[in-house]
Amino acid sequence: MEEINLAERKLSRRQTLKVIGGSLALCAADFTFASSIWGAQKKPNIVFILSDDHRWDAMSNMGHPFIKTPHLDRLANEGVRFTNNFAAVPLCSPSRGCFLTGQYAHRHGVKNNYTPWNDKNVTFLEHLRNAGYKNAFFGKWHMPGKLPDLLGKAVDQFVTFTASGGQGLYFDCPLIINGTVTPRKGKYLTEDLTDLALEFIRREKDGPFCVYLAHKAPHQPFSPPPELKKLYADADVSRTLPPEYHAWIHQKEGSIYYGVLGSVGEKYLDYHRVITAMDQQIGRILNELDKLGIADNTIVVYVSDNGYFWGEKELIDKRYPYEEATRIPLIVRYPSNIKNPGRSSGELTLSIDLAPTLLQLAGLPVPGAMQGLSLVPVLADKNIRLRDSIHMEYFKDFPYNVPEWDAVRTDRFLYVQYQGQKGPELFDIQKDPRTLHNIIDTPEGKSILPSMQNMIKDILRKKANG
């Protein structure tokens, strides 16, 4: 685990035995839960649903004032909702690389939206396919360079798009289906990708299969389908937009790149309309799994690549190390094996954790090159702490004026070190969840700062070694 350096701590004999005992208990929990899966007649199917820019609190199961997401709510009620889940990098392309490889961006190499994907990277899809899975990738690839060499190596069907610089179009988006550009006139992208995913699921219903469904939604320009254009028209956005929001926030430096020129309040409503449209398509998948009789043996994962600012700290978009950009939804449902479904977990988890989790649930070994931790003990409802802290990072992404940074986040504190002239920041998340008050120069901050600096020093040393 990269986030904690026990070697630099002075432990008593009792503390040492406690650490060793905890590690052994973690291994035992992993083995016990995985054994029940490996003993099953069939390996589990997997449906991995990835959205774009969906912040963690924009769901009705999170108590949002007006959005309705009944199918994500159903997933949460039937699975485990992770309420402290974070993007290892709060930016589209590198975050996608993290999900696929189980590695940080500094290792898989896609550091920003302009760094090409390296086909030498090994994805969890390849490991599944080598174990007999039929795999399909549908949707947003959005990593620079030529399209990856996935077909026949990691997937049996590869459907993506390159329109609008790889961002895709909500309407009439041409799809590249197994290498062939195919017009899709009259199609709404979220529904179109779901249609194709459902066709694959029906064809491969005998399993095991893995569907990787990467939506454009709810990324800007936040275009809902026609039937939802007036949804939430009566919503009072003042109840959810932050106090520092103002009508001219879209004119701040750099906002022209964020796709929110004009009425931010109306675009905010469209953002939630697009999420509800996506939720409807998730409902279609859940219903089809029920209809086919394979829901109990199918793992469904819902997660996003990063969050989104809607005026907090007078910011729009993502990239910064604050909760609005880094904290992302994560729900995992696996009816036949999750213990005590319907619960929430506050464990600190990361985007790099999904690849090792899915491999372990499939009964496969987790490669040593993966840097994430398996979430299997949490799914098994074991009273075991996964980690004490997480590391997040960000690399310069032209033309955005956001400095590179590394951050360490514990249950209570967030510490950020920037490159360049911007000074370090320290926040008490429990007292200041909106990270408005940098306490680095306060007595409380000075007392906690050395331990946070030691953590990040250890992280940066490991990062330098790859």
What are the SSEs and their pairings?
Elements: H1 13-38, E1 45-51, H2 70-78, E2 80-82, E3 85-86, H3 92-101, H4 105-108, H5 124-130, E4 134-139, E5 157-160, E6 175-177, E7 180-182, H6 189-203, E8 209-214, H7 264-292, E9 298-304, E10 309-310, E11 316-317, H8 323-326, E12 330-333, E13 343-345, E14 349-350, H9 354-361, H10 376-379, E15 389-394, E16 405-410, E17 413-418, E18 425-428, H11 443-464
Parallel strand pairs: 1-8, 1-9, 2-13, 3-14, 4-5, 4-8
Antiparallel strand pairs: 2-12, 5-6, 6-7, 9-12, 10-11, 15-16, 16-17, 17-18
What this model shows, in words?
This protein has 466 residues and is α/β, with parallel strands linked by helices. The protein has 2 domains: 6-388, Alkaline Phosphatase, subunit A; 403-466, Arylsulfatase, C-terminal domain (2-Layer Sandwich), CATH 3.30.1120. It has helices at residues 13-38, 70-78, 92-101, 105-108, 124-130, 189-203, 264-292, 323-326, 354-361, 376-379, 443-464, and strands spanning 45-51, 80-82, 85-86, 134-139, 157-160, 175-177, 180-182, 209-214, 298-304, 309-310, 316-317, 330-333, 343-345, 349-350, 389-394, 405-410, 413-418, 425-428. The strands form 4 sheets. A 10-stranded mixed sheet has the order 7-6-5-4-8-1-9-12-2-13, sandwiched between helices. It is globular and about 60 Å long. The model is unreliable at 1-29 (pLDDT under 50).
